[in-house]
Design goal:
Number of helices: 12
Order of helices and strands: HHEHHHEHEEEEEEHEEEHHHEEHEEEH
CATH topology of the largest domain: Aspartate Aminotransferase, domain 2
Bound molecules: pyridoxal-5'-phosphate
Length: about 425
């Protein structure tokens, strides 16, 4: 095979890779642009101090550092960490889980690659199954994990318009079809990119529909409760043998250590562990080692509730206030920020697409992500896909305020020239 043939195999599937490259190239410009396009969590000082203290304790204990870095864990992941997680979820939520229901991975992105390719794709040559995303827009990172084409089917949402320039997406159950081609149903809660939190009522209806079809409901809890708890709505977390919950230590502050957690029925955990053994032998051990005592003592829940959530919620409120101030007199809407790290801005009827807006903003020195990337599996034409952008508010306040101000002045210019 010619090298160029490899490229062809992936033709049309390199959206996120191209975007990451483009953002990366733009970042080396001088002066560096304001980066509101990434998904990095904030460096929350009390949380970082806690991990530093734990690292110092590992280093101070003779042989402990060498043990953590010098051994492979089993493919399922660090045993003590898993046992502590079992206790945490039993006491926190009363879930009837045991160690057989947990597997660690090298980040939840890694978990989704395993799970999606396990439940969707081609079966027995002809049967094809897809991952159903019941509420588009959805996380960009899902879009290319399928090893085959047409891997996702997404459902267009209903839009509830709220007061104060806010709106909220809702699952449109009237148009939602779960059928024999559905391999699993998945949604992120809170959602990246919108900050939406799928309501408890919606979750229970989705759970019922998935159960009726005999397929798992996968809940991407990367921002959810009990950690990192970047969620501003009170929700009831759920798990049973028909639900798969995916967690991560990234948004708590350890994205560099790549630790994902899958909570599922025993059979699924066994397969996920085998996949880990094939793809990477074992999950990394440093994330579990740094978080172990916080999980054991339950402090991970406390710090998430008392420090992490208010930290981000305050940032979200400030960002909304700044943007509203800058957009005075212009048409815009913001998805109600209910969690995660992002404001999802909707410019209904904007005379240019948000991809063009992205290019113009890049020239002005601010990087955002055009919303059209966040609709994997939603093929239909829908102008809304080209009317939204995602901006992070996890960066330093000064940078976020400046970036939002530049976005507003660009929008003002676009309207005044149209
Ligand atoms: C909704 C969602 N799920 C999963 C991930 C993947 O996170 P990680 O692989 O770092 O655990 C992210 C990262 O941004 C995310 O936003």
């Amino acid at each position: 095979m010619e090298h160029s043939d490899f490229g062809k195999r992936f033709a049309g599937r390199i959206g996120i890779g191209e975007l990451m490259d483009d953002l990366g190239n733009a970042l080396v410009a001088d002066p560096a642009p304001l980066m509101l396009g990434g998904g990095n969590p904030s460096h929350v000082p009390p949380v970082q101090a806690r991990f530093r203290k734990r690292m110092e304790a590992i280093l101070a204990q003779p042989g402990e550092f060498e043990r953590v870095i010098g051994n492979y864990d089993t493919p399922q992941g660090a045993k003590l960490f898993i046992e502590s997680l079992v206790e945490l979820f039993r006491s926190e939520f009363g879930w009837k889980v045991g160690p057989e229901n947990f597997a660690l991975t090298n980040g939840s992105q890694n978990s989704f690659f395993y799970l999606f390719n396990l439940f969707a794709g081609r079966f027995e040559e002809t049967r094809r199954k897809q991952i159903l995303l019941p509420l588009a827009p959805e996380y960009i990172g899902y879009s290319e994990v399928g090893l085959e084409k047409d891997f996702f089917r997404a459902n267009r949402p209903e839009i509830a318009r709220l007061e104060d320039n806010l709106f909220k997406y809702q699952v449109d159950f009237d148009s939602l079809r779960i059928n024999e081609e559905t391999g699993a149903v998945c949604f992120s809660r809170p959602t990246n990119p919108t900050g939406n939190v799928v309501t408890d009522e919606e979750v229970s209806r989705l759970r019922e529909l998935a159960n009726r079809q005999g397929v798992p409901l996968i809940i991407d809890n990367a921002y959810g409760t009990p950690f990192p708890n970047i969620i501003y709505e009170e929700v009831q977390p759920i798990w049973d043998e028909d639900v798969i919950v995916c967690m991560s230590l990234s948004k708590l502050g350890l994205p560099g250590l790549r630790t994902g957690i899958v909570i599922a029925r025993e059979e699924t955990i066994r397969i996920v562990s085998r996949m880990t053994s094939v793809f990477s032998l074992a999950p990394g051990g440093m994330g579990p080692a740094l978080a172990l005592d916080m999980v054991k003592t339950g402090e991970i829940t406390r710090i998430s509730r008392e420090v992490v959530r208010p930290f981000y919620e305050n940032k979200a409120q400030r960002a909304v206030a700044w943007f509203k101030r800058e957009m005075e007199g212009l048409p815009f809407a913001i998805h109600k920020p209910e969690g995660a790290l992002f404001l999802w801005l909707w410019f209904e009827g904007l005379p240019i697409s948000t991809q063009e807006l992205y290019e113009r903003l890049k020239q002005k020195g601010v990087l955002v992500v055009s919303g059209h990337y966040f609709f994997p599996g939603l093929e239909e034409d829908w102008p809304h896909k080209d009317e939204c952008i995602r901006v992070t508010y996890a960066q330093d306040d000064e940078l976020v305020e400046k970036g939002l101000s530049l976005i507003a002045s660009e929008i003002r210019e676009i309207y005044s020239n149209s």
